[in-house]
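TICKET: design request
STATUS: open
ATTACHED STRUCTURE:
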């Protein structure tokens, strides 16, 4: 079952973020705390949305955090999937596919032009899974990120 997250899911979302960071070999990178998700997911101006995957007994086993983007080339909004995570014990049970199916349903229902995300180049299981759904890599694009001191320096120039 896939459902929209509620404020009560914040501790679970943060736990999943920590588990995902550990899987991606960067547990020290997580700086978020529950108050950040309370504010940014459930405050007066939500910055993102979260879907929760549950197993048959209602236990949360995964999540997808996403937000809208805009393509000037398509002239349409889209969905950017920031995080997709399913607990190791629940993998292979269709939860990841169900989360992506729900995101695709939302995109189609709203007339969005695409759903996109990034995946680490070493994550062969995820890459294989995404390709099995018909997703295509965008190898000609390179992601750049401005953060920390460089962001502060440029922002205060």
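STATUS: resolved
RESOLUTION: sequence designed for all positions
ATTACHED SEQUENCE:
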């Amino acid at each position: 079952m896939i459902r929209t997250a509620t404020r009560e899911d914040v501790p679970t979302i943060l736990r999943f973020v920590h588990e995902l960071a550990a899987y991606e070999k960067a547990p020290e990178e997580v700086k978020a705390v529950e108050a950040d998700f309370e504010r940014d997911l459930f405050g007066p101006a939500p910055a993102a949305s979260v879907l929760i995957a549950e197993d048959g007994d209602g236990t949360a086993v995964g999540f997808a955090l996403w937000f809208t983007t805009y393509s000037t080339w398509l002239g349409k909004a889209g969905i950017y999937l920031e995080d997709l995570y399913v607990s190791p014990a629940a993998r292979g049970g269709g939860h990841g596919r169900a989360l992506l199916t729900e995101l695709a349903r939302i995109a189609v229902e709203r007339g969005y032009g695409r759903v996109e995300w990034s995946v680490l180049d070493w994550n062969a299981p995820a890459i294989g899974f995404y390709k099995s759904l018909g997703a295509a890599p965008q190898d000609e694009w390179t992601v750049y990120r401005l953060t920390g001191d460089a962001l502060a320096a440029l922002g205060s120039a």
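CLOSING REMARK: The radius of gyration is 16 Å. The longest helix spans residues 95-110.
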